[in-house]
Amino acid sequence: MRSDVMHASLLALSVLALTTPAAAQTYPDKPVKIVVGFAAGSVSDLTARIIGGKLAESLKQPFVVEVRPGAGANVATQSVVRSPKDGYTLLVATSSSTIRGPQSANFNFDFGADLAPVALIANVPFVLTAHPGLGVKTVKEFIALAKAKPETLTFGGTQVGTTGHLAAQLFNQRAGTNLVIAPYPSTAQATTDLMTGRISVAFATASNVLALIGDNKLTALAVAQSQRSALIPDVPSIAEAGLPGVDSSIWIGLLAPAGTPREIVDLLSKTVNEALKSDDLVKQMKAQGMEPLSGTPEEFARRIKADTEQWDAVLKASGLEK
Length: 322
Prior knowledge:
Number of strands: 11
Strand content: 15-25%
Strand order of the largest sheet: 2-1-3-10-4-11
Mean pLDDT: 90
Number of helices: 11
Order of helices and strands: HEHEHEHEEHEHEHEHEEHHEH
Distance between the termini: 48 Å
């Protein structure tokens, strides 16, 4: 290589090495966009606005939420993956993005590889809820009834390939039951039919069923996670109820495009985790049926990996791979 060309190359590398940390040190010096893949008013949208407000307070720049629904949040995710890796376009995603099913077939990205985890924000508990007319009070009683009446009891799920649908598939696989899975546009609509007895059970978000359980209009059998939920502490976890490995509650987290400077990722992660300690934020989240989470980017990455592996196995067993 000629000396002048080598000199120019070394100079360019030196400039890059100097400017990247400098950019991170001044971040943010303009408004930041948070993209959400579900409709306005959804739990993801509310989470983005709550945490965006806290980030704006701490980092002294606006954090503006942009709603881009479509294809199970894949439209929003792809737009963030293709954004500049500078920390000015972020994504609030849910655990549904770890499902590599039919809805992701037309999108060219890998959620686990093309995004940098920043911080987990919240957990939205799924409650296994039964119609009182079934006469069951526990998961074991329900499984026994389902096995005694194969292919007659109905499990309300969400659209094929989504978390609510695959959670029902996972229950069947782990419990060895043959519940008929009825897809619904949302858990709220499944809950409505559960109240009338049109379906037997459903995984419903805690916010949709807490009042109904309290009024004895529905029966809570278990929370679909490894530990009890503070939102409904009298209800056992599904592992505690005798069916481990059916962890399907929804997490919500903040991510950036892969390749975003680590200094920026760390700053955002630290700021989010500090915000999650504030009493007013915790109160806002609990009012929406969410439990605050926290943790490092590495812990978030491990959660994404574990969920992806779980749903890949469920998809394969159900014949729903993309």
